[in-house]
Amino acid sequence: MERVPELSIITVNYNGIKDTEQMIESLREYLSIPYQLIVVDNGSVKDEAADLHQKYPDIKIIRSERNLGFAGGNNLGIRKAIGEYLLFLNNDTFVRDDSISGLIERMRQNPQLGGISPKIMFADQRGGVQFAGYTPLSRITLRNNLVGYKEQDCGQYDIHSPTPYLHGAAMLVRRQVIEQAGEMPDIYFLYYEELDWSLQIRRKGYELEYNPSGTVYHKESSSTGQDSPLKAFYMTRNRLLFAQRNLTRHDRILSISYQLTIAIPKKMVLLLIKGRFASAKAVVKGCVAFLRM
Questions:
Q1: pLDDT grade, residue 222 (50/70/90)?
Q2: Burial of 79 (0-12, 13-18, 19+ CB in 10 A)
Q3: Exposed/middle/buried for 138, CB within 10 Å: 0-12, 13-18, 19+?
Q4: Contacts of 278 (CB under 8 A, 6+ apart)
Q5: Cα distance between residue 137 and residue 198, in whole Å
Q6: What pLDDT, on the 0 to 100 scale, is given for residue 194?
Q7: What number is the average pLDDT over the span 113-118?
Q8: Of 104, 133, 127, 138, which Cα lies nearest the Cα of 263?
Q9: Which of 154, 198, 255, 288 has the fewest CB atoms in 10 Å of its CB?
Q10: C-alpha distance from residue 5 to each of 23, 33, 73, 286 (Å)
Q11: Sequence-distant (≥ 6) Cβ neighbours of residue 266 within 8 angstroms
């Protein structure tokens, strides 16, 4: 009888079939362990699920007729996953070696370890580190930093360390954790869902880790744009939403007040000075959307 793979890899495709195919081909070339691959075509304008199924008939392809957002698309994949470990990869990532396979052994060794994000490198010619862990979100302003961001990789982040949050581009989570903490919160649609989910996992008593034993390469924001109006809308709305959902009453009031009276007006002024009127308008819409929730 064929052995059920321990690992299920889930990726969400949205009008990005070329990126998705590159990711699939990299996994096929380098991964040595058996795995189930699930691709969720998340409301692409063209039925890219059909094209992917024709080219890769052995892969589990799920077609959603509407865009369910990052969390909603991944949640569809979760429901079809058979592995004990689930690896969530952005479709605009790829691998250049078999290193992520070793992260499963790390999970086996530490039952309290609920999730791992590997080292994430920028995929462009300049390269550099995108993610080597997160710093905690500040209590009121909800600001934090990516450890190692845009630094050249000289081995300075080659030791695994705790991280308060997993990185949505690449995160390995055990099935048991999802059963206890629940699926990704799909209320965010785009951005902040992995931070919220990480908190839910930690509140169940699990630890999260950055582990450089695995490396993934990421073409950051190829689908939404580095500073698009879409990103401005969801980053504005969802930072407020994150505060509402996760802060205690006193901190929640202070944080939302700070966002609405200081941080967001400052952001709008900067956008207007730069002539980015569409993004400034998107920020206003993000505030209005939050207040109507």
A1: very low
A2: exposed
A3: exposed
A4: 229
A5: 12
A6: 97
A7: 98
A8: 138
A9: 154
A10: 19, 8, 22, 42
A11: none
- CA-based nearest residue to 214, from 171, 154, 163, 151: 171
- Which of 144, 143, 99 minimizes the C-alpha distance to 121? 99
Average pLDDT taken over every residue of the chain: 95
Q: What confidence tier does 221 reach under pLDDT thresholds 50, 70, 90?
A: low
For residue 223, the model assigns a pLDDT of 43
Cα(210)–Cα(134) distance, integer angstroms: 8
In Å, how far from its chain's centre is CA 228?
18
DSSP string, 102-140: GHHHHHHH-TTEEEEEEEEEE-STT--EEES-BPPPPTT
Per residue in 240-249, pLDDT tens?
999 999 999 9
Token pair of 215, please? 């490396």
**Token output for 69:** 């957002």
Q: Which long-range contacts (CB under 8 A, 24 or more apart) does 275-282 make?
A: 276/227, 278/229, 279/227, 279/228, 279/229, 279/232, 280/232, 281/229, 282/229, 282/230, 282/232, 282/233, 282/236
Residue predicted with more confidence, 3 or 84: 84
- Give 19-32 pLDDT, tens digit per residue: 999 999 999 999 99
Q: pTM here?
A: 0.94
Q: List, in sequence order, the alpha helices (H) in the chain.
A: 17-30, 48-55, 69-80, 103-109, 175-181, 193-203, 229-246, 249-258, 264-273, 277-291
- In 10 A of CB 285, how many CB atoms? 15
pLDDT band at 2 (very low <50, low <70, confident <90, very high): low
CA distance 270 to 279: 10
Instruction: Check: CB of residue 255 under 8 Å from CB of residue 243.
Output: yes
